[in-house]
Structure formats: structure tokens, C-alpha cells
Amino acid sequence: MKYNHKKIEAKWQKYWLNNKTFKAEYRPDQPKYYVLDMFPYPSGSGLHVGHVEGYTATDIVARYKRQKGFNVLHPMGWDSFGLPAEQYAIRTGTHPRISTESNINNFRRQLQLLGFSYDWDREIATSDPNYYKWTQWIFTKLYEKGLAYESEMVVNYCPALGTVLANEEVDNGKSKEGGHSVERRPLRQWVLKITAYAERLIDDLELVDWPESLKKLQINWIGKSEGAEVGFPVVGSNEVIHVYTTRPDTLFGATYMVLAPEHPLVQKIATGESLVKVKEYQREAAGKSDLERTELGKEKTGVFTGSYALNPVTGKEIPIWISDYVLISYGTGSIMAVPAHDERDFAFAMTYQLRVVCVYEPAMDPASDEYKEILSGKKCWPGNGLSINSQNAEISLNGSDVATATKKMIDWLQKKGFGRSMIHYKLRDWLFSRQRYWAEPFPILHFEDGSKRALDLSELPLLPPELQDYKPCGDGQSPLAKVREWVEIVDPKTHQKAFRETNTMPQWAGSCWYYLRFLDPHNTKDAWDKEIEKYWMSVDLYVGGVEHAVLHLLYSRFWHKVLYDCGLVSGQEPFLSLRNQGIIVARSYLDSNNAYVAPEDVTEKNGTYFHKKTGEVLKSQIDKMSKSKLNGVSPDEIIEEFGADSLRLYEMFMGPLEKEKIWNTEAVTGCRRFLSRFYDMVISEKVKDVEPLEALKLGHRLVFQVTKDIEQLQFNTAIAKMMEFINDFTKLECYPKSVLKMAIQCLMPFAPHLAEECWEVLGFTENLSTSPYKKVDETLLEETTVTYVVQINGKLRGRFELPKDQPEEVILDSAKNHAVITKHLDGKELIKVIFVPNKLLNLVVK
Q1: How far, in Å, CA of 43 to CA of 227, rounded?
Q2: pLDDT digits (tens, 9 = 90+) for 14-28
Q3: Helix, strand, coil % (nearest 5) of the chain?
Q4: CB 682 within 8 A of CB 758
């Protein structure tokens, strides 16, 4: 019999589904293990082999933990609301509900073909009303706690897509979805007060086992800093410009101010001829992304508003400018400019011939030309030193270092009422509105008097109206606003005329809490049962791509902490242990027009790639897999040719989980050969009910090594150990059935279909998925023989196996009687013997 992967895999996939082999139950008397994938957005193109890596890793852990006696929760669902689904529906003329359902069915089919041990009874989709009912309910909790509010904000708006976009959805002023132009414009938006949790989001990273690099990304995104808020009165006005600065010690060197073009004070303080120039500049800035505006190398541009502010420590009037290098979304949207000690401010000052005052003496030779240029304001000094030129009638910082000067200045500002000590976070409150159809409606009613009401649980889910024309309006409103009979209602609770909220939630909303709904997905009375939540949470292992390292994780942690404060969850952190899999990349090919060429149209000769049809020489490069680059490899074609177990094995054997890997379809054949050898070994006539010592040693060593590697998520080395085992085991005269049982159990998490078949072939009747490993006999792990290396004058001349711990005399005698070594000793005098026990014998001769 030959290994027939199609027949074997179809057989066991059907068995697992029919028997609900991986169904997870609430069993408070059994230790639990919750292993979770970052659930996918079900795109129309389906899975490619790059997606399979993380899912295979979690499945190995899930299957292994069941073998170790844990009650395992391993669910799967779909992040199915959002902009990509809506745009796909618009392009294809298909309602997003229909296209999303079709995509989900395809994804589910592919995942089941791979034999992943999900509990499919817990499957969820964020676009299912039975799911987003509870997303809406969680929003009402945020609203009740004052953590959800409305605000007029300057946002990234894409007219072509008709919606607000997050900064992460914009690249160089273009939408990542479709490549359309994005502009900055003010809109009324719902905002979540994530800044209220900034400190806890930093501090509680100490509670989790995450890669340090990932923790650092979160900390940097939150961006905690300590400084002062300083007020600069606008001359001839009652307005005050508030600036946050980490360097209040440089206040004597602040010679001008800069506001973001979108700052609300700009319209109030721009005067005369300046107003026309200001408005023109604002229009130009609206078309640039934050990245473009803050690029260090770009030329600094700006416009003078015509107004001045008072520097509170010098009493001097300083000009107020606007410039796009200041962002409204960062700090207060305004800065005090100290050009003598900040490169960007200095470049701006040089461009517009603004005053430069040095307030820190540079640490260099006072006689040097550079020193003189810095003191005269002709050159910037970003380094530290001792304060100079920093004195008024009430305070002197002169001669102070940075720390001392900062403390003195903050104390003086607070005493005089010009400022205050302040901890600041780069993190902004979370812009939570979108202008789309395919998303969760807000459970909010607006009344004519300006008041609002959040819907009660009994009024949820709030379904969107049925729309055939769900294209964006392009006027800052969502398509929901077009259905007046849905928007304008009489509130059944207050009997007042009311207006439904027409903005919708971002895709992040449904993915913030899905791990909790998996615990109790069929509960109609509550989002989850408290006792069930207490049993399963927190997630023991969470695996996903590093692209979610900041926002998804930050948003999920924020919502979880709010739910904790509401007494709805039992722990402060959702994901105790988290790992990112490395991306799988592949070679792509481009013609002279930089158009991608499909791999099947490419031929290679002596390292050069040619177009098969035209003969054109092609460029090649390594890229992340994607449909647009024609280098995505579907798991379907690999499964068809090699089998799901071969694909799973290859994905893990390519290298360490967290490292980037290059896909090579031809290399899958090596894993396929290994599985064929394993199957041949199990059905061999050499299988016997005997237990020779050498075979037992191989079996116990295999279990010890493989289980240790799985615990450390070192799947590639675990597979290498199994390959070594087969090489050694097949040299034996017979194959003990009990040792094969151990080998099958080691193989099962990696190649479950073949493992189940081999288990059945050998007649084992217990459930393989939960059958515990044989306890390792550590005495069998000890090596009884070692390999001695024999050198003559430092050159390798031979190796041989001998029992451990032999004395020097025995090893020397064995060497002298070794045929190969004897040739190199003939006629030579032995001068010295260097002996390293259990390792080396070096003979020095002349």
C-alpha cells in the first residue's frame, strides 16, 4: 500500500467533523488551555500559504495540550465587517452580505482541508446581528462611563471612498484601499477616550509574556513624556495659546510660535492680508498625509498669521505662524519654537529670517568658529550644556543644567499662573466613526434639544436599513443618512422625535472583543456567562501577524480594561502570552513596464529569468505574498499535489516561527517523502510486539525532545528530531509497536491525518487526540556510548564508538589497533598524548 494523502485526509476530516472531536466544554474540574489565532478578514481571494503558518502553529499547540490532559478551547471566526468587503461588493455589484458569506464559506472550506482542530460549533462573524448586538451593547457601556463622546475633529477623509480613514489606512496621502486621494477636513465624529487608560496600558504590560520588541512598540505608540503646559497670551485678544513642551527650560529661547493649519484659533487670529494666505495654505495642507507633513528632509513651509503672542518669561511679542509640520493630532496642535536648539525650528527660522536666541552654551572650545556661530544664532546646537541668556527680574536659570533648569522653570510657571507640570501622552483619543454601510450602526438616538440616549439591551441589535444603493455619499455622511424613515423616528421610550446616528463603527469594533464571545457564543441573555469567562480567560497563547502589534492589541486591551472596571471580566489583560509568526515571502517577477508576471509564464536559465512567451528578460525580487504581485500560492493546489499534512509540516520546517521565510514549492516534496517513509514504517512486516532496549531509547528520546520543542514553540527542530528518529529507527531489525505508538503521538500535532491513520492501522483503540504520552524514562535518555575523535598532530585521522568513561589507556590501545590510524603511526615516535575524556585523543608524533 502506498501513502494516499487524498483518501486519508478526506476520511479523517469527515470523522472529526461528524464526531465533533474538538468540541470544547465548560469543565471547571479540568485544567484549561485557550489558544487563539488572530481571526481573519475573509477576502475574496481566499487564503494563501502565508496565512497557513500561524494557524498551523496554534493547531500544533492545541493538539499537544489535549494530549497533555488540558481542556482546550481553539475557536475560529471571521472579522467580516469593514471597508474591503464593502469596496469588493461595490466593484462586483454584489451585496456585501452575499459576498462576505461566500468568502466565509471558502475560508472555512480551506481551513477544514488543512485539518485544523477548531471547535466549529463556536464559529462567529462580526457581521452577524447575533454578534454585533453585543458590540453595540459594549459601546453603550463605554458611553455610560463617559468614555464615548462626540467631537468636531480634523480627520483623514477620502472623497472617493466616502469615508473617514485611520492614519494606518493612509499611505503618502493615498488610501491603501484603492489608492485614492485623501484630504484633511473637520467632521463631527464619535471618539473613545482611550487616553484615560494610557498609564494602565503601559504599566500592565508587566503582566504579560510578550516579546520585548512588541511591548516597546506599544509603549512608543502611547508615548508618555513629562513636561509642562505653558500659556502664551495672544496680543490684543483674550485668547491664550496653550503649548505642551518637554523642554520648559528653553522658554527664554522661544522666539516664535507655530500652530497646525487646522488649529481652531487660526481663524480667530489671522488678520488682514494674512487671512487670504492662511486659507490658501490650509487648503494645501489638507491634501497631505501626516507622514508627508512631518518628513524630516522636506522643506519647511508656513504662513504668518499677522498676530503675536507674549512669551511669558521674556515679556516680548513673538510672531504666530502656521506650518504643516505641526500636527493638530499631536499635543495641543501648537508649539513654542526654540530655533537655537531644535533642527526643524532652526530650518524654519532660517527660511523666514526669524530671531534665534541661544540659551544653552555648547560644550566645545569657546575659541572655535562653530562656538561663535552658535552663540550668534547662525547655527543650531541640539545638545545640552549649562543655561545662558535665561534670566528675568524674578528668575534666573543661568549656569543650571537641564534637570535643574527644568524644575526651576516649572516651579516659576506654576507660581505665576503661566503654566503647570504635566504628563503627556502621544496617544490620541480613538476616532471611532466611519461613513460606511457595511458596519455596526451606533446604538444612539439624538433628540432635537441636543440630548442623546443610548439604546437599552432590549432594543438591540440595531439593524441597519436594507439598502440596495450602499455606495458612499461623498459628502461626509454615511449611506444610512439616505433612508429618512430609518433615521427619523419617534422614540418609543420617551415619545420624543429622535434621529438615529448615521455614522457607523470602524472594523476595529468587532475585533476588539471577539475572544470573549468565543467563550459563550450561543448565549442570548448575556454577551458571556461570568463563570464561563472566569474559567477560560485569559487567552493562554495568542498568535498573529506583527502588523497587528499596535492598534488591534491596544484597542482590545483598552476595551478589556473597561469591561474589567465594569465588573464584567475577571482579569485585567486579555492575552497572557503572545507570539508573532514571521511572514512568508515569495519571488515575484516584473517585465520592463514593471508589470507583474505570473510564475507559470516564467522560465529560468543560469540564474536569469525569462518570459516564456516573449523571451523578455525579467526582473525578480522577494516580496510579501499578495494577489496583486501574482506570487500568492494557494493552499488548495499544494494540498491537491502533496497533501495537507505535507503542507503543515513544511510550513513549520522552513525555520523558526518568528522569522521571515522564503516559500519554495519544490521543497514541500521533502516533507512528503518523510511522511511516506513514516507510513511505510508503520505498515511494514517488521512491526513486532517486542521491546529491545535500543528501540526504547529511541522512542523515549523522541518524546522527550519533541515535547520540549513544542513547549518552546520550536517546531522546526521538533520536526528535525522526528526525521532523525526515522533514520535511526529504520536501521533496527524490527519495529516495536510500543515505540511506533510513541512516534505517532509525537507526529500527531504536526501531521494529524496520517497520525490518525497509522494509529488505526496498528489497532490502537483509545482516542489519539487525548491519548497521553508515555511517561519518559530518563534513565533511557542517558548515552552509554560516545564518539571519540582521534587526531595525529592535530589532524583528524579517525572516529570510533566506545562505552562512556573509558580510561586513557583503553582509548589509546583502541587507537593503536585501528587500521586507518595505524597507517599514520608506522615508523613514527609518539612524543605526547592529549586526552579529553569522552571526546578526544590527540597523538603528537615525530
Answers
A1: 46
A2: 999 999 999 999 999
A3: 40, 20, 40
A4: yes
Who contacts 430 (Cβ-Cβ below 8 Å, separation ≥6)?
A: 191, 192, 193, 194, 555, 558
Q: Is the peptide bond before 538 cis (omega within 30 degrees of 0)?
A: yes
- pLDDT for 758: 98
Question: What SS3 class is residue 361?
Answer: strand
CB 310 within 8 A of CB 237: no
**What span, in angstroms and rounded, lies between the C-alpha atoms of 556 and 513?**
6
SS3 731: coil
- DSSP output for 117-186: ---GGG-EETTSHHHHHHHHHHHHHHHHTT-EEEEEEEEEEETTTTEEE-GGGEETTEETTT--B-EEEE
Q: Which residue has the cell 526643524?
A: 344
What pTM did the predictor assign?
A: 0.87
pLDDT tens digits, 609-667:
999 999 999 999 999 888 788 898 999 999 999 999 999 999 999 999 999 999 999 99
Distance CA 701, CA 549 (A): 37
Phi, psi of 764 (to 5 degrees): -75, 130
**What is residue 402's DSSP assignment?**
H
Q: Which residues contact 615 (CB under 8 A, 6 or more apart)?
A: none
8 A C-beta contact, residue 161 and residue 472: yes
Phi and psi torsions of 6, nearest 5°: -65, -45
Euclidean distance between CA atoms 434 and 202, whole angstroms: 28
Mean pLDDT, the chain, integer: 93
- Nearest 5°: the CA angle 267, 268, 274 is 65
Q: Residue 736 and residue 695: Cα distance in Å, rounded?
A: 7
Residue 629: all three cell numbers together? 504581485
Residue pair 744/761 in contact by the 8 Å Cβ criterion: no
Helices (H), 21-82: 49-67
Contact 276, 175 (CB under 8 A): no
β-strand pairing of 785-792 with 795-803: antiparallel
Q: Where are the alpha helices (DSSP H) in 323-452?
A: 343-352, 369-375, 402-416
Q: Which residues contact 190 (CB under 8 A, 6 or more apart)?
A: 148, 149, 150, 432, 433, 442, 501, 503
Shortest CA distance to 36 belongs to which of 17, 58, 69, 20? 58
Nearest CA to 575 among 556, 590, 588?
556
